Amino acid sequence: MRRSGDLNLPNCLTVGRMCLTPALVILLVGDAWGPALAVFLAAMVTDALDGYLARSRGLVTDFGKLMDPIADKLLIGSAFVCLAAIDRIDPWAVALILTREAAVSGIRLVARRQGMDISANRLGKAKTTIQTVAIVVLIVASDPSAAWVQALVGLTVAITVVSGLAYAVNYLGGRRELVPPASPAG
Length: 186
Fold this sequence. Notes:
It is a single chain. The protein is an all-alpha fold. It has one domain: Four Helix Bundle (Hemerythrin (Met), subunit A) (Up-down Bundle), CATH 1.20.120. About 3% of the residues have low confidence.
């Protein structure tokens, strides 16, 4: 029988995604676009696969619940920072994206300490999808300043911020339920 702390296949995929992040960084700053794209897409496949395997095979662990979002933020955040460093995306957009990621991580941490579980919702999954598309486009676009690329970046930032607000509202709504009602003044 496996304990929840054991490193199973989904958790190995999560760790693998974390290990691919430095390679992605090196390839992006080295202008190795094809290999960078391959590494990024491989890492994103592990993201989809680890969650599917964990849920479908009953392999959800505390390690996976903690490390999967960290691996995602590390990969996506590193990609955006590198793309900003090489002038393929404006730093203000990356700052908003990273601020949202940090805020949601903080909300989840506080919520967990209060006995609440704020799992990814559809808007959060849409955010991850559009961020992935934006990163791919920013890697492969011959002109990252083209209007259509900038529109995609704007949409990515908007969905990222809105999904962060949704997590905050979800947390605040759940927190109100945890707070006992005030006793009537007598």
